[in-house]
Amino acid sequence: MLTLYRQEIFKLSKRKSPLMAMGILAVFNLLVAIVIKLNGKMFNADGVFAANFLSAWLVALLLIGATATIVTSEFEYNTIKNIIYQAGSRQRVLVSKWLASLTYMVFLYAYMLVLNLLLKLILFNTNFSLSDKDGKFFIYQEWLYSAWGSFVKMLLVSSLVLLIAVLMKKSSAAIMVGTLTYLAVTLIGNVMEILLRKWEFLKWNPLNFTNYGNQLVDPTFANITHLTTNQLLWGSLAYTAVFLALGMWVFANKEV
C-alpha cells in the first residue's frame, strides 16, 4: 500500500496541474487583495480575509479536477490493468489514489492559508489584527473555521467525484458532476430551508451536510439545516466514507 501511495504522489508531482493550480490561486488571491486594498471604504478587509479572499470556490474546482483525473487518466491511457496487476488488489489501487488526492487537498489548503496570511501581512497589516473581534469570533478563528469548513465539504464532494470517476471512466463526466454538486450546494440554501420546513427527514440528505462550514462560522445556520454543528461534521464524514465504500465496491466489480 505504501509503495502504491508513493507512486501516486510521484505521478501527481510530475504533472503540470499542481504548479498551475498554485499559480492560478496566487494570481486570483492577489487580485482580490489588491481590489480590496484600493477600495477599502467599499469592502470589509477583515471579513474578506477571514473568507480566504473568496478563494474557496476556486480551490474546490481545482481539487475536483485533480480528483477526477487521478482515476480516469488510468482508463483513458489504458494503464489501469497494469496497475491492478502490480498491486494485486483493486481496493489497494483505489485507496492509494484517494490517499494521494487527500494529500494534495491538504497541501492546497495549507498553501491557500499561507498565501492569504502573507497577503494580509504585506497589504493589510495596519488595517486589522488577527486578534481583533469580528462578532462572536476572533478574526483568526473565523479565518481558520472558514478553511476547515471548506475542507470538510471538499472531503464529501471529492469522494462523490471519485465514485463518479469510477462509474463513468471519463474525466469530463466526473468533473461536471462534481462541479454541479458544488454549485448546487452554494445556490440552493433558500430552497433547502423551504423543503426542510415541509419534510423534516430531508435534513439527512448529503447536500444539507455540506453546510457544515457555513454553520461553523454562523451558528444561526442551524435554522436552515435543522441539525447541530457536530451532527453536520460527523454526517459529512459518514457520507464521505459511504461514497468511498461505494466507489471501492463499484471498482472491485467493474470490468476494466
What does this structure look like?
The structure is a single chain. By secondary structure, this protein is an all-alpha fold. Helices cover 78% and strands 2% of the residues. It is built from 13 helices and two strands; from the N terminus they run ααααααββααααααα. It has helices at residues 2-14, 17-38, 45-50, 56-76, 80-87, 90-123, 139-168, 171-187, 189-198, 206-209, 212-217, 222-225, 229-253, and strands at residues 133-134, 137-138. It has a two-stranded antiparallel ribbon with strand order 1-2. Strand 1 and strand 2 form a beta hairpin. The chain starts with a helix and ends with a helix. The model has no long low-confidence stretch (mean pLDDT 84).
Please outline the helices and strands:
Layout: H1 2-14, H2 17-38, H3 45-50, H4 56-76, H5 80-87, H6 90-123, E1 133-134, E2 137-138, H7 139-168, H8 171-187, H9 189-198, H10 206-209, H11 212-217, H12 222-225, H13 229-253
Antiparallel strand pairs: 1-2
Helix pairs in contact: 1-6, 2-6, 4-6, 4-7, 4-8, 6-7, 6-13, 7-8, 7-13
